[in-house]
Amino acid sequence: MSAKLEALSQNLQQCLGDRVKSLKLAFGEVTLEVEAADYFSVMQALRDEPDLAFEELIDLCGVDYSAYGNEAREGLRFAAVSHLLSISKNWRLRVRCFAPDDDFPSLPSVTSIWNSVNWFEREAFDLFGIVFPGHDDLRRILTDYGFIGHPFRKDFPISGYVEMRYDPEQQRVIYQPVTIEPREITPRIVREATYGNAENA
Amino acid sequence: MPELRNFTLNFGPQHPAAHGVLRMVLELDGEVVMRADPHIGLLHRATEKLAETKTWIQSVPYMDRLDYMSMMCNEHAYCMAIERLLQVEVPIRAQYIRVMFDEITRILNHLLWIGCHGLDVGAMTMVLYAFREREDLVDAYEAVSGARMHAAYYRPGGVYRDLPDRMAQYQESKWKSSAQIKPFNEARSGSLLDFLDDFASRFPKLLDEYETLLTDNRIWKQRLVDVAIVTPERALQRGFTGPMLRGSGIAWDLRKKQPYEVYDRVDFDIPVGKTGDSYDRYLVRMEEMRQSNRILKQCIDWLRQNPGPVMSDNHKVAPPDREAMKSNMEELIHHFKLCTEGMHVPEGEAYSAVEHPKGEFGIYIISDGANKPYRLKIRAPGYVHLSAMDEMARGHMLADVVTIIGSQDVVFGEIDR
User: What ipTM, to 2 d.p.?
Assistant: First the structure.
């Protein structure tokens, strides 16, 4: 790994101390994991510490880990993953924070640290149902007015629950249960790590 | 005295200046915008969810349909993310082809932007000129991929095929005699590179032509200068990237600062604005077209001299060529596996960003080792820029809202995803 990423990891360890839950270096990218309780203070430090100086929040997205891999998964289901960028230091960082409660996932909003996160948090709320207390305008953003459910959760079917059509008798647009059935042409397969090795034959 | 109340105006989604399907609720005090609330999502197709149900390669054409004005740049970010997880080396010729088409795409995007921006603000002529030049560039798209817009030309591991040796020519018809079409076919008599070379030598003059129409035009300046000023601090706070950030005076360009492919081997400059108003963003984008043209020329020269493979020879990722597939058992198996089950991407996560014509376009991929992505997140520049609409439009006149939409260069394919 390049010296730059080493320096970044060192600075992170130094500035955040034991607030770092895990720090990974893979594919030339640094991933920081933090506890939900430390989330806000860590984000604040990431922007304000001169050794880190992440002036821009590039992206924040929700992830639903419930269907990950082959085996049933232990641990928390929802996470918010943000990508930060420092213009002055020219480095990037990924921050992952799992929301503590699977039934009502909630993480503090960081809109006061980076204004750009506003719509990203609305999107994560809309698509995954992650709530961000402290966000002053947490409305749905991408889905239809009056939409029910959180469509990007893994238990939400790809074809949805309702469809919309024009009803000539009532002379208006109506919602009805979907009439199409989802079909999977190529199944999803996770191969074991040794699959296809010659010595296994 | 009667009580005065603000007027709420619904702008779009069918307004021609809404660039697609933007619905904006504007709160007006007289003609001054007090609050702008963009409602997006009218074009939401859940591309990210759809990608989770498709194999890796099947999602490439979906990328074209995100920002449908800069197709190949979207594919680029997606392919780069997969390549990073797979640790696949892309042949150098394919890298040059990618850079060349990224720059063609940038010119395509900016030409459309200047046309529509001009149209919104009242300069009818621009769109006619801009589409004249776009025609040549979409022909280049067509020559390599067969499609004028949704190319699906970049693939994980390289590009779909090498540059063609000849261009499609105009045919004689009932309406056009051979004498009439002859001048149109002159530039098309050679290879694609000859055709692009001809374009690159013509293009700077044409840009001058656009600038004589707009840059010092009194009406154009009255509509753009000092409209929606964004200070560098606010631009960072609002997550601006690309021309929007450079317009505010921050010299940040991924092609220079975090070079990918062969951008560190080509020579170009980054234009930077001063005041951060709409006029500066206009100037930045105009200069970017000149710089893109410079890169385009360098790529043409390199590609002329250096033939070679354009696709990785790792057949776990890239399909083997047809001839090998039909004569060799092993290649046949690879081809079959790739075209049915698709490739497997090792477990991990990657974020790859490209300097898209509109800003930083990023793809964040989480793979759990399957033949489909576990989660795909598209970081669209327009989404972030549009979220600053309220801040930029506040205190301006209603007519300036159209200028701001134009100067943000929004496209709803990427914003609504």
Answer: 0.88
